[in-house]
């Protein structure tokens, strides 16, 4: 009799291996936000305001945030005046490293001097308050356009350095007289 009951237990339990594996896989929680308006501060001062139409926050071993539908950031000086802006079509932020990867039509503008950086890929190191890339860049100034590969700059885009300048084009004002 005990042998019959034991046989019933052996043949009554049958699990699909894929189903069991799925039960024990880690699932990543995803938070979704619309019309994001976030303020970044440091040392008791407002440093930046980030706006985006859509954000995804992934709660993984290394949590990260994605902005798949554009991102805009206004950077402020100590008087809370906008000193520079940043726009990108895509961004991914690593929460632990405090670094943001930006790509697709990345534009940084210094509102005081009017210098404009254009590139397809840029890193924003929030801890060091710097931007950097090893990709092609274009910097537009009032009197010239500089093309190069690779650059680094301060977050306010007041100081920057191109690693390899490929060419520079002088702009002639409508009057024909250089300033």
Description of the molecule:
The chain is mainly β and 179 residues long. The protein has a single domain (28-170), classed as Lipopolysaccharide (LPS) transport protein A like domain (lipopolysaccharide transport protein A fold, Sandwich), CATH 2.60.450. It has 2 helices and 11 strands. The protein has helices spanning 2-12, 17-24; strands spanning 29-42, 45-59, 64-67, 71-76, 82-88, 90-94, 99-110, 116-125, 130-140, 144-154, 160-170. A 6-stranded antiparallel beta barrel has the order 2-3-6-7-5-4. It is globular and about 80 Å long. The termini are far apart. The relative contact order is 0.10. The mean pLDDT is 86.
Short description:
The chain has helices at residues 2-12, 17-24; strands spanning 29-42, 45-59, 64-67, 71-76, 82-88, 90-94, 99-110, 116-125, 130-140, 144-154, 160-170.
Secondary structure: elements and pairs:
Elements: H1 2-12, H2 17-24, E1 29-42, E2 45-59, E3 64-67, E4 71-76, E5 82-88, E6 90-94, E7 99-110, E8 116-125, E9 130-140, E10 144-154, E11 160-170
Antiparallel strand pairs: 1-2, 2-3, 2-4, 3-6, 4-5, 5-7, 6-7, 7-8, 8-9, 9-10, 10-11
Strand content: over 45%
Most strands sheet: 6 strands, antiparallel, barrel
Order of SSEs, N→C?
HHEEEEEEEEEEE
Any low-confidence stretches, pLDDT <50, length ≥5?
none
Q: What is the global morphology?
A: globular
The appropriate CATH architecture is Sandwich
Per the CATH scheme, the topology name is lipopolysaccharide transport protein A fold
């Amino acid at each position: 009799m005990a042998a019959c009951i034991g046989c019933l237990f052996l043949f009554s339990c049958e699990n699909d291996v894929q189903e069991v594996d799925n039960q024990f896989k880690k699932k990543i929680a995803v938070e979704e936000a619309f019309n994001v308006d976030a303020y970044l501060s440091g040392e008791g001062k407002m440093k930046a305001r980030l706006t985006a139409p859509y954000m995804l926050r992934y709660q993984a071993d290394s949590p990260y945030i994605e902005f798949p539908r554009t991102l805009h950031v206004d950077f402020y000086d100590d008087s809370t005046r906008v000193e520079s802006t940043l726009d990108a079509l895509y961004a991914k932020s690593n929460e632990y490293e405090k670094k943001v990867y930006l790509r697709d039509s990345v534009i940084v503008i210094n509102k005081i001097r009017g210098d404009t950086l254009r590139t397809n890929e840029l890193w924003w190191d929030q801890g060091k308050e710097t931007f950097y890339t090893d990709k092609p860049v274009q910097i537009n100034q009032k009197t010239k356009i500089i093309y190069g590969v690779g650059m680094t700059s301060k977050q306010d885009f007041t100081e920057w350095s191109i690693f390899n300048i490929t060419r520079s084009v002088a702009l002639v004002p409508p009057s024909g007289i250089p300033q």
